[in-house]
Structures are given as C-alpha cells and as structure tokens.
Amino acid sequence: MANTEANILLIYTGGTIGMIKDFETGALKSFNFDDLLKHIPELKLLDCTIETTSFEHPIDSSNMNARYWVQLATIIEEKYQDFDGFVVLHGSDTMSYTASALSFMLENLTKPVIFTGSQLPIGDLRTDAKENLITSIQLAALREKGRSKIAEVCLYFEYKLYRANRTTKINAEHFEAFASLNYPPLAESGVHLYINDDALYRPNRRKRFKVHKSMASNIVLLKMFPGIDIETVNHILSYPQIKGLIIETYGSGNATNEAWFIEALERLTKNNIPVINVTQCSGGSVVMGLYETSVPLKKIGVISGKDITTEAALAKLMYLLGQHLSPHSFKTIFETSLRGEMI
Ligand code: ASP
Questions:
Q1: Of 93, 97, 171, which is best to mutate to test ligand 1, by the most ligand atoms within 8 angstroms of its C-beta?
Q2: Positions marked catalytic
Q3: Residue 220: exposed, middle, or buried by beta-carbon count in 10 A (0-12, 13-18, 19+)?
Q4: 287 C-alpha to center of ligand 1: Å?
Q5: Which of 26, 94, 220, 230 sits at 20 to 30 Å (Cα–Cα) from 80?
Q6: For the chain, which domains are there?
Q7: Whose CA is nearest to atom 4 of ligand 1?
Q8: What is the pLDDT of residues 104-157, one digit of tens each?
C-alpha cells in the first residue's frame, strides 16, 4: 500500500522555544536541537513522518538578517521535492519579518511553510511551545485530494494560524503574541481544527516553484512623530547609498505637509528611489488624498502601502529592489498584492 502520510521537515533557526537557562548568568541561550525533541515525545504519536534540520549556530531572532533568510530559503529549496510541508522554529521577536520575507522569496509555493515558536522554553513546565509545535505540524501535514491543503507561508501561535505577511508581534509577554488586524486567521485550533477555507491562498499550481535570493540592503524606515525635524530627516535621507525608504505615517497615511519634509522626499522620488507610505496604526489602510496632509505625498509619487504591515513592506521593498524593475513598474507592482499581503 502506498504511504499517504505527509512528510514534514522541521527547521530550527533558534529562539526561546529551544533555549535553556544558563545557571551562571540566568540568561536564556540556545541548546542542542536534538535535545529539544526529547522534550516532546508526543511527536511520535502524530500521523506524519518528521525529519529535522537546524541552523549550524541557532540564533536569537534579534540577530536575524537577509543572509539568514537566504539560508532558510535555500534549505526549503533543496528539500522542496522531498517534503509535503515545512515547519520553521524561529524566535518570536522578528518572526513576522522573516516569515514575510520568505513569503516573497518563495514564489509559486504549493506546500505549507509554517513559522512557530514560543514565549516560554520547551523545557518550562508552563510552556506554550508544545501546543504551538504540535498543531503547526498537524496543519502542515493536512492533505486534501492528494495534495497539501495549505499552500502559503503562515505563522501559528496560540491557537491561531495566520497568513505570515499579515502578522505583527503585539505582545512581549502574553502567549497570544501575534495579531493579524487586516486579514482573518486561516485556521483556529480548539476541540477541532477549524480551517477558514475562504481565506486560504489559492496558488496557481501550474506555475513553477521559484526561489528568489536577491534581497536589497540600504533601505531606511522612518517613523513619523510630532516634532520630527528638518536636520534629522535631511541627515538620514542624505545617506548616499539609500535605495528605498519606508515612511511610517499617521492614520490613513498622513504626515506633516511642511515644505521641507515634502522636498526631502521629492529629492528621492525624483532620483527614482522608491518611497513607500505605510501606516503606523496596526489596522486599517493608507488612503493618500483622503486628508490634505497626504495630498502632497501622492503628488510627488509616493507609493501606497495600502493595508500592508511594516514588516511585509520592508520585505517586499527588499525583494522588489532585488528584481531590478523599471521605476514605473516598481510603483505598479508594489501597489499590487503579490502574495496576499495587501488588499
Ligand atoms: N528573543 C527571542 C527571539 O526572538 C524571543 C523568542 O524566541 O520568542 O529569538
């Protein structure tokens, strides 16, 4: 009889889930991944086969960068044909950034890549790690009509599965550490696993799976705050290697409309350096032109981030700059949903 069990690859990158207390310093540090699995004998009861791999030197996700994203994308690329789904164990601090980046780097994905982690180490009595890990594996192993039910990059935490590029870390203590304010959960875990079929990404299964590894650097993220001044802005934006800018604006995409600020941004747009407008609100969308304070931004060619998260906007900017698009198509493509990251 053919083996119909799903084959899942568990990839450990680091983070609290696999950490242990250093008795000398009291700080949490990474420990051996094989030891981590000894803490969850329940994994053997799951209806799927699980193989594991790990970063050679697991990291606290505060040290995450694009080189590690490429390392992770490469592991998935090399193992893509051998597995039905991937579960990535990652620190929660920058999980939304990495998972958003991977959603752009992995084009035409037809298998699940589910990020998870925990607020307490797996060895802790009250740990949230076991439920997060076990349910992530079950979700990654879900099959329908002989293929993976979920075909996108997701994030599972505290009973909810989200589209990864819609998430933000919202709490440093609660087990419910993530939210997706502009998109509903893809699945919820209670007595039963409830899958929100209508919310799932529908891939074009005829298109070839492609991994993009060119992620641009030299981008700037500038958060608006009352009192932001000309010297600061001009200093930051006169950085000669700057390739792109994200402004985190107020409400529906508003910023000071004082001339010095608009001129500083226009120096970039005139040089074909993309400027993206993302709201600093956790929910809702940028609508340039709704208020007087966003009209000049629209006029000088600022790109609308619509309802994208800052995490996904950064990832999308790095990804699209790596594609070397023409300035005109850059704006159109950025304002188009590529992986379900915006309306
Ligand atoms: N500092 C840790 C990390 O992001 C926190 C966690 O694992 O949740 O790697």
A1: 93
A2: 16
A3: middle
A4: 34
A5: 94
A6: 6-211 (3.40.50.1170), 219-334 (3.40.50.40)
A7: 91
A8: 999 999 999 999 999 998 878 899 999 999 999 999 999 999 999 999 999 999
